[in-house]
Design brief:
about 210 residues, transmembrane, mainly alpha, transmembrane helix, membrane
Length: about 210
């Protein structure tokens, strides 16, 4: 199970990084820095050197490399909102590389993949810690299987709700939605945020 958890967490983290890198390529500042050569060897090397510097810093300061890469992914993908900012739209130099709707879905994908990667990494650490506390291997595998199943279902449900909120958000933006529809969407979003906070708090304070 240890090797499977490691493989899945690395795959999820890699996929999140690829998506966030692609989102970074959609930003006008990045396009200006690389002079339009988004996928050139030079731009790819320079961008990944930035990531590598963060990883090396984390390694020498004994910080989590997984969390460091996750921070880089969030930074890269967060810049993708710039092409759709009201401060930039209308400028002749700005080119929308990715449509707004696709950008929102891709950013959601980055977050979901990072959540899976970091959680599976935590499960991998449990495999090292629990035997030292006297927990039997069979019991550890049983507990982790239940945790993986529950967390996967939770993430899938939350992702579905978030996709619905993205769709309704764009419907509200592009169409004249009724006030009741807007209020319903706002309450649903608030419920999702509250539920996530409660779930994360429970995971931190009431579970190992």
């Amino acid at each position: 199970m240890k090797h499977r958890l490691k493989a899945v967490s690395i795959f999820m983290l890699t996929f999140a990084y690829i998506i966030s890198y692609y989102l970074l390529c959609s930003t006008p500042p990045y396009q200006n820095i690389v002079k339009g050569e988004i996928l050139s060897t030079r731009s790819i090397i320079l961008t990944n050197l930035v990531t590598a510097s963060f990883v090396v810093f984390a390694y020498f300061h004994k910080k989590s490399i997984y969390k460091t890469i996750a921070i880089v992914c969030i930074l890269f993908s967060s810049f993708a909102v710039l092409p759709h900012s009201k401060f930039l739209i209308g400028s002749g130099e700005i080119e929308k590389f990715i449509p707004t709707e696709i950008t929102a879905i891709m950013m959601l994908g980055v977050i979901v993949f990072l959540m899976f990667a970091l959680r599976f990494k935590k499960f991998e650490e449990y495999l090292k810690e629990w035997p030292l506390e006297g927990v039997e291997e069979r019991e550890i595998h049983k507990i982790l299987k239940e945790k993986i199943k529950f967390y996967s279902v939770f993430n899938i449900l939350i992702s579905g709700v978030c996709l619905f909120l993205i769709a309704t958000g764009f419907k509200t933006f592009y169409e004249n939605a009724s006030a009741s529809f807007v209020v319903f969407t706002a309450f649903l979003g608030l419920a999702v945020i509250t539920g996530c906070i409660a779930f994360i708090s429970k995971s931190i304070f009431f579970t190992k």
